[in-house]
Structure formats: C-alpha cells, structure tokens
C-alpha cells in the first residue's frame, strides 16, 4: 500500500496495528521527495539520515509498548524553526551558515511526541512575503501549477503536504503565513489564538531563543485533514515551560457543538477596501451552501461585525510598526519625512503602512487601545455566532513575481490591478485581535487551482472551528491531490 496521501490519523492507526513500520514510511517519503521535489522545491534542508535513525528508534519504542501521539509519523518543519545541527537562515544570505545549538520548543514537542522530522521547508526572505523564495534556496512552486506561487511564508510546508512529502508540518502566521499557503495549495492550516502555542526558537537567525511573546505572531499546525490539525495542535499547544508553563496548564474548552445543524455562522465575502475575486467568492458560497444544506443557521449580515476598514488599518499599522522597528536610524528618518508629507485625510492602506512604520510608543499604545475595543466587539459577535466564514486572499495562486521592490508589485483580481500587500486585508481580520482561524479547502477555480476559506472563531475556543472544519470536510470533501 502507498501511504503518501494518507492522513496522520490513518498512518498512526496502521502503525499501531503493525500494518507498516516507521522505517518503511520514512523510506517511502524520502523516495518521493527525491523523485518529485526537484520540480516543487519544498524541502530546502533535508535531514534524511537523522530521519531514518529516528524512524528506527520509533519502531523500537513501539515494540517496547510505547504509544505517543505522533510516534513514527513523518513530518516537516518550517525553515524558520531552530533545529540543532541544521541551518536556520530565514532565507537571508548573510546567515547562510548559522546553525543553532538547540531545538525550538515546538521541534522539541514534535520529537517528544514521536514524530520523525524529514527536514525543513522553504520560506521567503526574512519571512516577509506572500511567496516563498530566497537567494539561498530558490523558489517553491505550487504543486498544482509550477508557474504559480505556493504562498508564504509557510509556502514550503504547504507545498510539501500537497505533494505527499509528509503527513504533517508546522509553520507560523503573522500576515496569513499559515492560511495563505493552505488556501493556495489546497490543504488545511490553523492559526491558533494568540499566545496558545509557545514560540521560543522560532527566532531570526543568530538571535537568542528567548521566551518572548511577539505581537500578532503565532505558530501553528498544517495538515491534509481537519482532524490531523487537531491532533497536531494538541502537541503544539501550551505555554513555554520557561515562563507561564511554570504555573499554568492548558485546558482548551470543547467545541461548542458536535452537529453541523447546531452551528450559527456568519458568512462575509465583501471587504470595503479590496474586491473579492470570483473564484474565491465561489468558494465562500460553496461553504455557505454546505452549511445551509447541513442545517446550520447562516447569516450574511450583522451589525455586530466590527468595522472592517478600521480593523485592517489597525492591523496594517501594528504589523508595519513591528516590521521596521530595527531599521537603521537613517532609513527611519527618511520614512518619517515621507509620513509627514501625507495628507491628513489620506486613509489608504499605503498611508496606514507608512504611518505604522514611524509609530511612536504613544501611537502604538493608542492603536492597541483601539484593538481592545475590537476584541470586545468580537466577543459580542461570538455570543451570537460560533464562527465567521470569509476569504483568506482575494484570488487563487498567482504567478511568481520576484520584483525586489514589494511595494511596486501588483495583484490581479478579475482583470484589475491592486497593490500587492492589500491582499492581506482578510488575513489581518483574525490576526489583529488575535483570534483563531482555520483554513480549509473549498473547491477549485475554473483554472483548476485550489481555493480555500477561513473559519474565524472566539478567543481560545480553537476546537470550535476545528470541529466545524471537520464537519464541512465530511459534508463536501477536503484535500484532493494535485493532478
């Protein structure tokens, strides 16, 4: 039997039953990577010798009667996670030779759960793009169409899963970096509630792996089924043992409902600042129709929805204030001069980006106060609804665009051009208030490209969206292997 596209849950059952060994699974995965990854370029740092040794160790452990959540299951890890003995570059040439001395906390959790790590997956330069390419490792192609992007910044992980190179992968998300690649490659991903999963060791190269909670940024699971997301989230979730983990233990509440017909869902497919492409709108509607057919209570409008334009402005300011915080003083001065020239009535996203880049601490505190008002608004909304269905980006996978000036790039939405970074508006909807969001496949475009949607839910009720994603998968299907 070929195990390439089996779920982690199915593989775990087969391992327990003795139908396959971890060594066999690992050899099969490595053979597929060596055969197919030249065209996709998802696995940028293979670690096959240690993977084979780990697989043999997993088989011995099982023979002794051990049974851990991921024992013997082949997985990959985003390049940005520290792994002792392997380079962590974030795609930055000046850090080509940086090799950390210890594993990131999430890599340690994977190994403790018994996973077999095959290697690391490709990322964009500094993790700061919606595509995955860099000077060190090159570009990762979309498995459905090699002329198009797999997304970023967890694009290598998404492409590896869609190509059948691994059963699970871990990524990160600040600007849709889990959800966008999942949407573009036709897989599942979950952006956890902010602070739910420890991030230590997911640090820029040469930086010390400190237990710091970064604003907006999370780490999370990627998989080919919703149930596999839940399986991996259980391994990843929990505070850092160096900080809150000394005093706290995590207990996530169960899903609000078990039956599709009990869910109350708000469907949103229009944004005031950017149109939704027809292929993505069709995907949202497919999910909405499946919800209605399953008996769920579905609404398209509510006055409880926080102001989307203000939300994305806040998100953009908070995102870019962090992204340039360590710019050289001279560059910061130039940005400040440009921001001073903005008209007081300029409320464009370009203006929000520039203003965010030169935020003072006072500005940040004011924006954070407004964020708390948005969080309160979301709490009120989730008293009436269990989830919000909306796009992840306005389009399916777009052609590779490696123009080094990201601000000059454009995104084509049904024949009209828009500023490249404006497509982040939907990712920011959940990121700015720290809400959990699950990306799931929602069919394909007329060109045969995957289309996904996201399910946004209430803070620390991650199991609610994961259960809804599972029910939708049962209702109208989920991952389909590229053809």
Brief summary:
The protein is α+β, with helices and mostly antiparallel strands and 483 residues long.
Keyphrases for this structure?
483 residues, alpha+beta, Amidase signature (AS) enzymes, eleven-stranded mixed sheet, two-stranded antiparallel sheet, 14 helices, 36% helix, globular
Describe the structure.
Its EC number is 3.5.1.4. This is Amidase. Pfam families: Amidase. Keywords: Hydrolase. The protein is α+β, with helices and mostly antiparallel strands. Among the domains are: about 250 residues, Amidase signature (AS) enzymes (Alpha-Beta Complex); about 70 residues, no CATH class. Helices cover about 35% and strands about 15% of the residues. The chain has 14 helices and 17 strands. The strands form four sheets. It has an eleven-stranded mixed beta sheet, sandwiched between helices. A two-stranded antiparallel sheet has the order 4-5. β6 and β7 form a beta hairpin. The two termini are about 20 Å apart.
Topology of this protein?
Layout: H1 8-17, H2 22-40, E1 43-46, H3 48-63, E2 74-78, H4 105-112, E3 116-121, E4 133-134, E5 138-139, E6 141-142, E7 145-149, H5 155-162, E8 168-173, H6 179-185, E9 188-191, E10 218-223, H7 226-236, E11 264-267, H8 278-293, E12 297-299, H9 308-323, H10 329-340, H11 349-357, H12 361-381, E13 387-390, E14 410-413, E15 416-419, H13 425-431, E16 437-444, E17 450-456, H14 462-476
Parallel strand pairs: 2-3, 2-8, 11-12, 11-13
Antiparallel strand pairs: 1-3, 4-5, 6-7, 8-10, 9-10, 9-16, 13-17, 14-15, 16-17
Helix pairs in contact: 2-3, 5-6, 7-14, 9-11, 9-12, 9-13, 10-11
